[in-house]
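Notes for week 9. Today we move from apo structures to complexes. The key idea is that a small molecule is not decoration. When we ask for a structure prediction with flavin-adenine dinucleotide present, the ligand SMILES becomes part of the input, just like the chain. The input block below holds both the sequence and the ligand string. Read it once before you look at the output, and try to guess where the molecule might sit.
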Amino acid sequence: MGEMIYVPTTLEEALQIRKETGARPLAGGSDIMVQGKRGIGLCPELPYSVMIISGLDELKGITASEDGSVTIGALATPSEIASSSIVPWHVRKAASGMGAIALRNTATIGGNIGNASPKGDLPQPLILLDAYLVLASERGERTISVDDFIIGAKKTALMDDEIIKSVVIPHSSFTYSYYRKIGMRRANAISKLSLSAAMTVQNGEITDFRASSGAAGPKVIRSRSAEDIIRGRKIDEIPSLKEDFLSAWNDAISPHAMPEYRRHTTRRMLEYFLDEISRGAEPGIIGEE
Ligand SMILES: Cc1cc2nc3c(=O)[nH]c(=O)nc-3n(C[C@H](O)[C@H](O)[C@H](O)COP(=O)(O)OP(=O)(O)OC[C@H]3O[C@@H](n4cnc5c(N)ncnc54)[C@H](O)[C@@H]3O)c2cc1C
């Protein structure tokens, strides 16, 4: 077998290996090793070369910038993200609900995005927050929104010589926030429907409104045209706009052939968020137990 395992110690070295060999980055390995599993007591076997990137300092850490954006290194684990006070609430919430504790200490945000599983937990709040990636290669760096990077189930815009370096979340400040994940466990199949929503209100006017849904289709669903029905309007107009919004949201998800119960649950969650606000909910998190 010609497959190799590389262990670069700097990003520069990693980018060179990536360009020359096309070896795939292996961060926490929690997706890759499962794909290569052969049986109890046997080492996983992969049909491609990998490079273990977990030692690359350039991909670590969580930092805040002066413009209010937050940069999360590709190697940050769900545990690090969940316990960071500078990471926006929706992302912390999603990270804290990922798998069991061992997985939360091993998995990485770069792997969660790089894997592009429709069931991945982090892309959904990241897309809500208009987060983007910094992709590094020997040619330099480029940025791309998480929404554009994830093309579909297991399909990304990553080029053969690129590595995800970091995830940048622009500044946002919401009056109301909502996050919910509903897990349904059947034998080995774990499917989870998740929804994030956020609204900013200034002097009764809705200056920002967003919603995104995960595990509902091949990729995260966000409909900016549906959001526009609510954005820019007055808070007391919500009851009269709600049906139009929900039907536009439904149209946005219809190409994804979502099972009826998922469609219904997503709708119920969005309706709940909007109803609570129009009933005069206190600013903050809606629906937190
Ligand atoms: C028992 C179990 C439970 C799980 N539960 C959950 C869950 O609740 N929620 C959830 O979202 N996921 C879950 N997962 C899936 C998995 O743990 C996550 O997707 C995780 O974030 C993957 O990160 P990793 O670093 O381990 O990825 P890896 O396996 O190292 O990599 C995954 C993919 O991303 C690519 N990649 C990794 N890092 C980079 C990078 N820096 N640049 C470019 N490409 C990169 C790899 O080449 C590979 O294609 C679970 C997995 C297991 C085994």
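The first strand starts at residue 5 and ends at 6.
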